[in-house]
Amino acid sequence: MKDARGVIFDIDGVLTFQGRVYPGAVQVVEALRARGIALCFLTNSTLKSRASCAEKLNKAGFSVDEREVITASYATGVYVKSLEPRSCWVMVDREGMDEFRELPQDSSNPEYIVIGDNRSQFDFTHLNLALRHLLSGAKLIAMQTELVDSSMGEIELNVGAWVGMLEKAAGVKAVSIGKPSPFVFELALRTMNLDKSEVVVVGDRISTDVRGAIDCGMRSILVKTGEYKASDLDGDIKPDYLIDSIQDLMRLFR
After folding, report:
1. Which pLDDT tens digit goes with each residue over 221-235?
2. How do strand 69-71 and strand 38-43 relate by DSSP bridges?
3. How far apart (Å, rounded) are the C-alpha atoms in residues 74 and 92?
4. Above 90 in pLDDT, residue 244?
5. Backbone phi, psi, residue 158, to 5°
6. Contact indicator for 117, 46 with CB cutoff of 8 Å
7. Domains of the chain, first to last
8. What is the CA radius of gyration of the chain?
9. pTM for this entry
């Protein structure tokens, strides 16, 4: 690990979880900075914008620049803007919507339907409307594809559950932007100005963090905290390194 020049951190489940900062997390981030390691904080959260995520981390005791943060909503905003859409219907709540303010919004005749965590409008009326648009030719974009999440406390449906329902009902396939999609990892590498061979990914999910790292040709470190389950290691996807907690990370950099 001495050759690593950058670290991509997952946030929920690695540095923080359910509103609490893991012991040693702030110190590890500071120690990496002191070594000149470039950092990126990459989360599949769609409710947070890049700015609000950085603000939350800083209030929790970290020292983070907004430009070091990539949320699934920010990455999806970058992707959708590159399409130069005629119109889009972005379904997401809270600050995540801030990443799409510059785009033409139209829920009555959208060219693209963009799905994030839209808990205020995931109801019979809005989901049926989305279905009808998809059947009429609208294209579907998923901010991420995780089915469930417990980072806020009790387990709850995540974006992938709603996207999967619409895909099946409409007979379409969504373009996915968040982890484990290569798009979001490549975006992270561009922000760090580093090659994939120089960067390691630290996460708690085999299905998103480790799989995404492998697909992009990066090394991965799986942390046995957050959403981690021992059964995760039973499958074919294996991390390069396995540690008990974020406090153990610096041992790999000796």
Report:
1. 999 999 999 998 999
2. parallel
3. 12
4. yes
5. -115, 180
6. yes
7. 6-44+179-253 (3.40.50.1000), 84-176 (3.40.50.1000)
8. 18
9. 0.95
d(CA 68, CA 8): 10
pLDDT score of 45 more than 90: yes
Evaluate if residue 254 carries a pLDDT over 80. no
Residue whose structure tokens are 């942390």: 223
HEC states along 37-97?
CEEEEEECCCCCCHHHHHHHHHHCCCCCCHHHEEEHHHHHHHHHHHHCCCCEEEECCHHHH
Answer for the pair 30, 99: CB distance below 8 angstroms, yes or no. no
- Got the DSSP string for the chain? -TT--EEEE--BTTTEETTEEPTTHHHHHHHHHHTT-EEEEEE--SSS-HHHHHHHHHHTT----GGGEEEHHHHHHHHHHHH--S-EEEE--GGGGGGGTTSPB-SSS-SEEEES--TTT-SHHHHHHHHHHHHTT-EEEES----EE-TTSS-EE-HHHHHHHHHHHHT--PEE-STTSHHHHHHHHHHHT--GGGEEEEES-IIIIIHHHHHTT-EEEEESSTT--GGGGGSS---SEEESSGGGGGGGG-
Q: What is the pLDDT of residues 169-212, one digit of tens each?
A: 999 999 999 999 999 999 999 999 999 999 999 999 999 999 99
Q: Cα(158)–Cα(179) distance, rounded to whole angstroms?
A: 13
